[in-house]
Amino acid sequence: YPEGGLVAGGLSQTPTYLTSTNKEEVQNEVKKQIQVFKDNNVDLMICEYYEHVEEAEWHVDAVKKFMPGVPVCASLCINEDSDVHGTPTGECGVRLARAGADVVGINCHYDPFRCLEAVKKMITAVREAGFDKVHFMIQPLAFMTPDASVQGFIDLPEFPFALEPRICTRFEMAKFARMSYDAGIHFIGGCCGFEPYHIRAISEELSKERGDYLPYGVINWGKCLEIHTKPWVRTRATRSYWENLNPGTGRPYSASLSKPDNWGVTAGHELVKQHKRTNNQVGA
Q1: Which residues of 226-235 are buried (b: 16+ CB within 10 A; e: fewer)?
Q2: Which of 2, 59, 74, 126 stands the most exposed, by the fewest C-beta atoms within 10 Å?
Q3: Model confidence, pTM
């Protein structure tokens, strides 16, 4: 395999932040996890899936102090406007870079194209702030979420067991990969909903940028259909056909959009605080 392999350690947001919003308590919790990765000499750390940039800053800071010299990637699960506390997306990118992150970006909660718009705002703000050596990453959902609100697909009524009608096609994923790369994002991956064929589509689209490496099982924009037994299917063996396809749902009365719950509960709210219980209270 030409790229070789790297082993990453992963951190994510904690219930401790939602309960206390206390930096020392949050970092003490995070250091328990970091110790495992430090003991096993991981190649890099990925701090991901944060709704609040403040907590992500604290995690990046903890990694930089506890694992000096190890590259740190940091991504938020926010949209193109702001984090859950209202901090503008571009400013979030700058704060992550200032905290010491080597790579900043977006993961989860939103579809590829909304995540792309969010990272583009980070790129502009980070470069304007003078962080010229910071790189950018993107790991979106594989579900289309134009109607998702501030807390992303979690607010959609289909979450989590009926999201399949929103799944992206492999061709939409190839388009996303090209747009992301051209925007200056070179750490491209996926999060919830991604299937192997989605990753293959990204790899296939960016094969020239990756030393002409092609993954196993590529379909080359349907070129294999040139020998299909049905003549009308053979006409689909072109890139233009699949790039311009508007796929149907197969559900005559399906809605194109849903109404998000807009729950709006975040750090500090009583509903998300942790509570200690004794054994005889569990299930009460």
Answers
A1: eeeeeeeeee
A2: 2
A3: 0.89
What is the predicted pLDDT for the residue at 265?
A: 63
* Choice among 29-38, 76-85, 189-198, 204-213 with the minimum mean pLDDT: 204-213
Please tell me the distance from the alpha carbon of residue 244 to that of residue 209, in angstroms, as a whole number: 24
Q: Give the full edge-to-edge strand order of the sheet including 72-76.
A: 8-11, 44-50, 72-76, 103-107, 135-139, 187-188
Strand-pairing partners, residue 149, are 152
